[in-house]
Amino acid sequence: MKTNLYFRRVAVIGAGLTLFRRRMLETPQELAWEAARKALDEAGLELKDIDCVVIGSAPDAFDGVHMKGEYLAHGSGGVRKMVSRVYVGGATGVMVPNTAWYHVASGLCEKVLAVAEEKMSPARPHPQSIFRYIWDPILEKPLNPNLIWIFAMEMHRYMHVNKITKEDIALVSVKNKKNALNNPYAQAAANITVDDVLKSEVLVWPVQLLDTSPVSDGAAAMVIVSEDVARRYTDTPVWIEGVGWTLDNTEWTGRELAYPRYLEYAARMAYKMAGVERPNKEIDVIEPYDPFDYKELHHIEGLMITKRGEAPKFLKEGVFDIDGEIPSSPSGGLLGVGNPIAAAGLMKVISIYWQLKGIAGKMQVKRPVHTGVAQAWGDLMQASTVIVMRN
Amino acid sequence: MDGTPLKEEDLKKVNTIVYKPNAKYAYSAGQAYSKFLLGLKEKKIIGRRCNKCGRVYVPPRMYCDDCFRPTDEWIEVKDEGIVETVVASFISWTRERIEKPEIVGVIRLFPSRDKDWVFPGLFHRICADFEDVKNMSLFGKKVKAVWKEERVGSINDIECFRVVE
Ligand SMILES: [Zn+2]
Fold first, then answer.
1. pLDDT tens-place values along chain A, 391 residues long
2. How far, in Å, CA of A128 to CA of A146, rounded?
3. B102 vs chain A: nearest CA distance in angstroms?
4. Are A223 and A40 in contact (CB under 8 A)?
5. Which residue in A has a C-alpha nearest to residue B122's C-alpha?
6. I need a labelling partner for A225 at 20 to 30 A (CA). Which of A128, A262, B98, B137 fits?
7. Contacts of residue A157 in chain B, CB cutoff 8 Å?
């Protein structure tokens, strides 16, 4: 049953993506512009029609400038408009449409341009060094951590608690990189085997190179509007029916890492708003956040698509394949398409939008779809954002 | 225009801007971390307890984030605990390859129980071999802090945690 909230219905009527690649020639602003222009074109709108702009970008340090919201504003069409930047680490990409949703749902704006951009390749020698600054300066940074430590600690705990093997997990990378072969924007599409994953470079055991998504540059944008506007511009709007987001505390050392509690809370919020009571029966297609392969399984459980520890079993049975019962990451996900952090999260939302509109081309899943979910995650294993959409 | 990836040879032509900002930080450890760091100097692991919900914070915290009220008392927890998770890093923090892997993980310190949803937990090095990490035998093992001779009030006053049984 839906919640008894009063807000205007909100729809998506256009979206745009740049190629996801390492080392793009374009500047961050040019990438933002390119995605925004495409989204306006798909919607059939001009910039003058837009009331507000929402910009999503992850840490400033990636683009190498401070104040990325202001920096990206003109490329995102925000000059002399209401502009806000949202940032919840890796969860930013889905926070962008969520924020656009409340701009429109509240009645403040009719037409919002939502843009996410990340250019990770300027950092030398590797963006890994920048991640050092997300750790606690007093108790964690002196141990010289790199970001992959977090993922490895979570993955190993997940494997231990649920008795899951590296082979079970590698199947996610195999599936997503294969799905990405159908995606014209993808950077890391490939036909690989479980064996290729297990033989790849060991980074931080149990994480190996092919368990991870690549360093990427890219941008994504969406046009998000009120019901009245949507009815005027398209016969096939895709509705944003539920949004959810939560933060847990940064004290990840003091909690169970095998299960993403922060995500369950965000998902419950979004499902309640959308009236989803049985996620495993009512959701037709999902884009869970997959910067690492185990993360997709972890998130499928947090989204309550399966019970705890059971996602690998359903994966093996093909439930999450592109022609399965609940296709997961039909876009190819971050593992296959690439991971320009904030843009990657919004790319997942765009994938669901294209699926529900039926214009996903070679990526289109085989079953008819009515309800889709995209999700992102970030910071020190604490932030999660969820969006539920219907056609 | 659809995004233009640079080629490897293009990268040889770029100017790299090397810039060392003269930005230094003097972080305040606050009341809780200060006491914690001083405790390490004395080979003690200090936490804070919230008497309303019973939660023990290690590292300590002056407020309880669930009850949103001040925590009530300092307590000393054991320098022993159970390995919650452990990993072996073959890369440095700048992503350079390192030959001898660094073993790190999370230790759930005593007194705490298996079923505690939140617990006093410490992120630190674990003295063990890659094989022990790989075969997952370290999970659930009891470990104890190995203290450095010279202690200065830093998280590095603990060398690592070593398996005791
Ligand atoms: Zn409390």
1. 566 678 899 999 999 999 999 888 899 999 999 999 999 999 999 999 999 999 999 888 888 888 898 999 999 999 999 999 999 999 999 999 999 999 999 999 999 999 999 999 888 778 877 887 888 899 999 998 988 999 999 999 999 999 999 999 999 999 999 999 999 999 999 999 999 999 999 999 999 999 999 999 999 999 999 999 999 999 999 999 999 999 988 888 999 999 999 999 999 999 999 999 999 999 999 999 999 999 999 999 999 999 999 999 999 999 999 999 999 999 999 999 999 999 999 999 999 999 999 999 999 999 999 999 999 998 777 899 999 999 9
2. 6
3. 9
4. yes
5. A253
6. A262
7. 84-85
Residues that place a CB less than 5 A from ion ligand 1: B 50, 52-53, 64, 66-67
ipTM over 0.90: yes
Give me B98's structure tokens: 């390192």
* B88 with A23: Cβ contact below 8 A: no
Cα A247 to middle of ligand 1, angstroms: 18
B140 CA to chain A: closest CA distance, Å?
10
Spatial separation of the C-alpha atoms in residues A206 and A212, rounded to whole Å: 11
Does the CB of B161 have a partner CB in chain A at under 8 Å?
no
Which CA distances in Å does A139 have to A22, B67, B70, B139? Answer: 33, 24, 22, 23
**Cis peptide bond upstream of B111, omega within 30:** yes
Place of tokens 């959409």: A389
Residues listed for chain B:
165
